[in-house]
Amino acid sequence: MSSAIVGLIIVLVLLLVLVGVIYYAYRNIKRKVSRFSQTVFGTSDLIEGIKQRDLEVASTPKSVAGVTSLYLPRIQRDFPEFHYQEMKSRAENVLTSYLRSIDANNVSLLSEGTEELKEQLAMRLSILESEDTREQFDGIRIHRTEITGYNKDKAKCAVVFQSSVEYTHYKEKNGNVISGSNSMKTQTRYNVECIYIQDRDMIENLHDAALGINCPNCGAPLSGVGAKVCEYCGSPIIEMNIYSWNFSKVAEA
């Protein structure tokens, strides 16, 4: 037998050994992957397990950092007129209408809010328009809303609501989805800030009607909106509340 044939046989044997080692390693890795997938996802198919996990994540609502029971007594002590259920409902309406405003590219769909919130929304729509992009929010659903923060100081009084939200969210350009998914649900959280500020419309109305404000005791005209005491009879004047709760910020948490 020539040395060339011997060399060829040796090469073939080495190749067979190498193939055997690779096949053994492949089978070993496959068993480990299947075992891992079975342990983590409950199925031996890793790809199927990942798909199941993604579906589970997409259908499981996010928890909210709810500390309503801690903050609500303090808020109602400082502001007895603060009605929790009403304010929570308003916060949810603001959040839903904010997202629908983006979806429809229409600021006027926002149910209520400060000028700052309206400007924030208008800026977001302006950016989308400059990018020739549409941002879509379909099937909006709020699972739960709780108070997650309360701050009261000389500058501002603010209550923050946090909502667990579900929707289908994506961006499209020229009819093509460029981010997000138009078939997979998204679970997320949003914070909605509510602040106690001067009601501008009420202030304007009061100033316009200032000349017609009279003392409830003697009927004499009052000197102005902020009058504490009647200049004629000395009766105390109950100060009109020119403050109200309004919504100033919406942000994904």
Features:
single chain; 253 residues; alpha+beta; Nuclear Transport Factor 2, Chain: A; 5-stranded antiparallel beta sheet; 6 helices; 5 strands; 43% helix; 25% strand
Account of the 3D structure:
The protein is α+β, with helices and mostly antiparallel strands and 253 residues long. It has two domains: 30-60, no CATH class; 62-200 and 244-252, Nuclear Transport Factor 2, Chain: A (Roll). 43% of the residues lie in helices and 25% in strands. It has helices at residues 3-41, 46-59, 68-78, 84-104, 115-130, 200-208; strands spanning 134-152, 157-173, 176-180, 186-198, 243-252. Strands 1, 2, 3, 4 and 5 form a five-stranded antiparallel beta sheet that branches. α1 packs parallel to α2. It starts with a helix and ends with a strand. Residues 202-212 have low confidence and may be disordered.
Taking the sheet with the most strands, its summary is:
5 strands, antiparallel
* Number of helical stretches of at least 4 residues: 6
Low-confidence sequence ranges: 202-212
> Beta-sheet strand percentage?
25-35%
Number of domains: 2
**Helix-strand category:** alpha+beta
State the order of secondary-structure elements, H for helix, E for strand.
HHHHHEEEEHE
CATH topology of the largest domain: Nuclear Transport Factor 2, Chain: A
Please provide the count of β strands: 5
Binned, the helix content reads 40-55%
CATH secondary-structure class of the largest domain? Alpha Beta
Q: What is the terminal separation in angstroms? A: 78 Å
Average pLDDT value? 84
Radius of gyration over C-alpha positions, nearest whole angstrom: 32 Å
